[in-house]
Amino acid sequence: MAENFQRNLLIPQKEGQKFNWGAFLLGWVWGIFNKSYITLIQLPLSLIPVLGEIINLACSIWFGFKGNGWALQNKDFESLEDFRKYQKKFVLAGIIMLLIRIFAYITIFIIIGAYKASSIKFIDGEIIMVSTIQLVIVSYIILLILLTNKTSIKLILTPIILVLFALTNFISLCDSYLFKIQAAGKSKEALALSKKLLKVPAIAQNSAKNKNIYDTIINIYINQKDIKNVIIYSEQKEMAMHFLTPRSNNDGDNYLSDLYIITKNYDKVKERGMMYRIYFINEDWDGVIREATKRISSSTIGRRIDNKDYNSDYQTYLARAYAYKKLGKIKEAEEDMYVVKQMLPEKNWNKAEKLYNSNTNYYKESYDNLKKFYNLN
């Protein structure tokens, strides 16, 4: 240790204060090879739900500022030239890794875009292959550039690096694989895998990640017209989405509210503040106004328009506007329609106006079609 200290004394002190781009780009990988094991804290912290990505970036910035100092403190270098040459390898590896990831993401987006734009099916393994190649290439580039020539070190660190990268890419790999097999029409396999994934703590407790898993399950059951399981997993999804934040009356999936209405689960409809839709179906316009107003006043504020606070659910204002118009209260109706237009993109104004001016009961038509889809009387 004393010898290391004496050697690194030959390196100017100001070198330890410079920003280390290798530490910034590679994080804990850089830390392993520079004997700065404090960087391993990045691994568990990056898995924290919602905040993980922000913490990961904060760690990278921290490592960048402290990297040179840590490396000079913990590792032996012959000279300033030796130190800089070694650190440049990490910068090169980090840039290559970043470019490969960008290329992989672009490739996946192109594949997804092609699927959405046409009726083609995925070739087996297409998306999972892209993610796997990304994982293997990135791992071995780091190994080839950074590892010493000692075979024993290669044999020890190669599986460690591969396993760590596999763990950090596990969720994205699962998402890609689920998308692929579902698009290929393998609903049974996608359903079984999705339910298994929800039992993995890292996924089950991460509301930013498990949404895609729940959506896969729900969409499969919708296609199977299995309304019972659509409701069960929609409820589970909603509970998972509110794992970190309390519910408010204007939160949640409107499709789930629709299912409660067509299955006549009125307690749940009332709990979600959606009773105005039932009054709308029955053309009780006073009831619509009363319940819509109650929902608006009790919901979380979502929009500020002309220095006034409004609920963010435009459908409630649209229904109340329609009810006001039916009762001849045109001024109140127009005020609600103004709010609707402020909430919607301009391209959707015509659709809202069409519903407002319709002489048909658009909610009743919608629920009749939904009941027909699920074969309900």
Summarize the structure in words:
The protein has about 375 residues and is mostly helical. The protein has two domains: about 180 residues, no CATH class; about 130 residues, Serine Threonine Protein Phosphatase 5, Tetratricopeptide repeat (Alpha Horseshoe), CATH 1.25.40. Helices cover about 70% and strands about 0% of the residues. The protein has 21 helices and two strands. The protein has a two-stranded antiparallel sheet. Helix 10 packs antiparallel against helix 12 and helix 14 crosses helix 21. It is elongated and about 90 Å long.
Reconstruct the topology from this structure.
Layout: H1 2-8, H2 21-26, H3 28-33, H4 42-45, H5 52-74, H6 80-117, H7 126-146, H8 151-168, H9 170-183, H10 187-197, H11 201-204, H12 207-223, H13 227-241, H14 254-262, H15 266-271, H16 275-281, H17 285-298, E1 301-305, E2 308-311, H18 314-326, H19 330-343, H20 349-357, H21 362-373
Antiparallel strand pairs: 1-2
Helix pairs in contact: 6-7, 7-8, 7-9, 9-10, 9-12, 10-12, 12-13, 14-21, 16-17, 17-18, 18-19, 18-20
